[in-house]
From TrEMBL:
Belongs to the major facilitator superfamily. Sugar transporter (TC 2.A.1.1) family. GO terms for molecular function: transmembrane transporter activity. The chain crosses the membrane at residues 30-52, 64-85, 97-114, 120-142, 154-177, 183-205, 267-287, 299-322, 334-366, 421-440. PROSITE patterns: MFS, SUGAR_TRANSPORT_2. It is found in: Cell membrane. It comes from Streptomyces violaceusniger. GO terms for cellular component: plasma membrane. This is Metabolite transporter. InterPro entries: MFS_dom, MFS_sugar_transport-like, MFS_trans_sf, Myo-inositol_Transporter, Sugar_transporter_CS. It is a multi-pass membrane protein. Residues 30-444 form the Major facilitator superfamily (MFS) profile domain. Keywords: Membrane, Transmembrane, Transmembrane helix, Transport.
């Protein structure tokens, strides 16, 4: 099986050999293994949306603590992206690639034993840090191992994996509702199961040859390519879009270097469009059963599971078209459609539950279709030695928006009602539409060197 868009001939023969390499079983395996992290991310975030309504009475959470618990994992993602993105550029991809999934296993299992709200808050923060670390690690390694014609679908596939994990979490939570008073414990702890599986699969992943070359370890990089791809590459081909650097250095040094070398604009663009996608989306997902109930929908857990399943199909659509229509039209079009969906939920008199569910499903479908670009754009617009830093910064900034919106949503709903809160989402997605129209570049036909030189 091959990913959509991977069967065409290379678009430009002048790009480095790694960009034009034929797609092999090794590439497909690397993408599958990389998808494990986002799958676990989605599952660990989604299961809280199901469990939260059970946790609230079990741990006697008030409005403040409900918002804190829901937002804690997103605060952790901010810290994980901001801290571990630069560290990944300095320390390498492989070690971090394994350690962060080990953190998923430990954090998920310990949630079963919590007895107080602060304990759950700490564990969700810890899990969030691991999730935030995985974003730059998985996307950087995938970008640097696969050829150009596979890159867009592969990176979008990471977000598809996120949505599959998120969707499965709702169905798993729904099934675990029958386990009694401790159902929420089993829900939260169940995240350890997929994490263990993918942890074992990740153990055999090699270090990125592009990263090795960027650190001056060219012969090691050539050996990785020779062993896993059966190719011979020159030092020039490995170094074409990065600067060899044998020094150590800190994460803060990488951040300063990113802005010094003119990558502030792509960092701003990636941060802004990502914020405007996830701020309303995470708030709605975290409290979707409660919001559906406010519109008069019954069977909210089943409806939420159905909506999330439809969203997975939206991500699949994004994966199919990212190489065909391009990055820029996909981003702008998705923002336009989610804005229309939110406007309809805000202003229309909705008397039928089916129409309410359909509009929430449309919102999640189109948001999911554009969400693949959260991995694609940051991974393409930064060079190898700054790639994880750039992705980490964009991830961190996006979680400022998502954590704030998730924390504030219960209070905003109490003050303005569900429709008033959704109107705020309309404003945020409108900003995303304008930012995308002004700043989104087109990179679908470019090699990594060409894409990252667009800064």
């Amino acid at each position: 099986m091959s990913l959509p868009g991977t069967s065409r001939e290379p678009l430009q023969n002048s790009s480095p050999t790694l960009d034009n390499a034929p797609v092999t079983a090794f590439h497909r395996r690397m993408v599958l293994v990389a998808m494990g992290g986002p799958f676990c991310d989605g599952y660990l975030l989604g299961i809280m949306g199901v469990a939260l309504s059970l946790i609230t009475p079990a741990l006697a959470l008030d409005t403040l603590w409900t918002g804190l618990v829901a937002a804690s994992v997103l605060v952790g993602v901010f810290l994980g992206g901001a801290v571990f993105g630069p560290i990944t550029d300095r320390a390498g991809r492989h070690l971090m690639y394994v350690l962060n999934l080990a953190a998923f296993v430990i954090g998920s299992a310990l949630q079963f034993f919590v007895t107080e709200a602060w304990q759950l808050l700490v564990l969700r923060l810890f899990i969030g840090i691991a999730i935030g670390a995985d974003y730059p690690i998985a996307s950087a390694l995938t970008t640097e191992l696969v050829p150009r014609r596979m890159r867009g679908p592969a990176l979008s596939g990471l977000v598809l994996a996120w949505w599959i994990g998120y969707g499965i979490s709702y169905w798993a939570g729904w099934l675990l509702l029958g386990t009694g008073d401790d159902a929420w414990r089993w829900m939260l702890a169940s995240g350890a199961v997929p994490a263990v599986l993918f942890l074992l699969l990740r153990a055999g992943v090699p270090e990125s040859p592009r990263w090795l070359a960027s650190r001056g370890r060219v012969e090691e990089a050539r050996e990785v390519v020779r062993r896993h791809l059966g190719q011979e590459v020159s030092a020039e081909e490995l170094l074409v879009e990065s600067r060899p650097d044998r020094r150590g250095g800190s994460g803060l040094g990488n951040l300063a270097e990113m802005f010094r070398r003119g990558y502030g604009k792509p960092a701003l663009f990636c941060s802004l469009f990502w914020i405007c996608q996830v701020a309303p989306a995470f708030a709605v997902r975290s409290f979707q059963p409660q919001m559906l109930e406010s519109f008069g929908v019954t069977g909210t857990f089943g409806a939420s599971a159905l909506i999330t399943t439809i969203a997975v199909a939206g991500t699949g659509l994004g994966l199919l078209v990212v190489n065909r229509i391009g990055r820029r039209p996909l981003l702008i079009g998705s923002f336009l459609c989610i804005n229309i969906s939110l406007i309809a939920l805000t202003v229309l008199p909705l008397h039928y539950a089916a129409l309410v569910v359909a509009l929430f499903a449309a919102f999640q479908f189109f948001e999911a279709a554009g969400s693949g670009l959260q991995f694609v754009y940051p991974s393409e617009l930064f060079p190898t030695d700054l790639r994880a830093t750039g992705v980490g910064v964009a991830t961190a900034m996006s979680r400022v928006g998502s954590a704030s919106s998730t924390f504030l949503l219960p209070m905003a709903t109490a003050d303005f009602g569900v429709r008033g809160t959704l109107a705020i989402g309309v404003a945020i997605t409108l900003i995303g539409l304008v930012v995308s129209a002004l700043l989104a570049p087109e990179t679908k036909d470019l090699g990594l060197a060409e894409a990252s030189s667009r800064a």
